[in-house]
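FW: tagging you since you asked about this chain on Friday. Here's the raw sequence from the shared folder, copied in full. Didn't touch anything.
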Amino acid sequence: MSIKKFIGLREEMSIGFYLCDFLFRKVLRHNADVSWSIHFTSVIHGAARLKRGKGVYPGDSPNVFINADNGIEIGDYTNIGPGVALVSANHDFINNEINVVAAPITIGKHCWLGHSTSVMPGIVLGDFTIVGAGAVVTKSFEEGYCVIAGNPAKIIRQLDKTACIAYANSK
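HL: got it, structure written out here
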């Protein structure tokens, strides 16, 4: 058994990642309300309203921005790439000091959000939804089992649901 595993650290992350996390979250108090290790360039607002499933570490990639003011739920084994923005709250059109109440963002199990994607308030992504790099998700894809891309995001490919379910059952 490795030292990392023994003390509860993820094998795929370097010791340097954990040292930076300790410095920024514990000493400098940047993202201090986040209870898991994240990249020092990521920002999470409203961490108490962010529910994450098994194997999910939002913000462990660089430059992730998460605003969970209206709530965000992320299913098991979902991967969030670098530069992703999950924005559960927008500003009022007239007074930008006011956040507008919206439905929470819900992201299913085994999803993958590629580099620099943006997910807007109230969006629901079903299980096995892959969001291509740079996509802007402005409508929900509740059925899942698809690849979406573009601005605004649209389905560019359907996934084999049987193969996805077999994979999920193997985890």
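FW: The chain has a mean pLDDT of 95.
HL: agreed, and The radius of gyration is 17 Å.
FW: great, closing this out.
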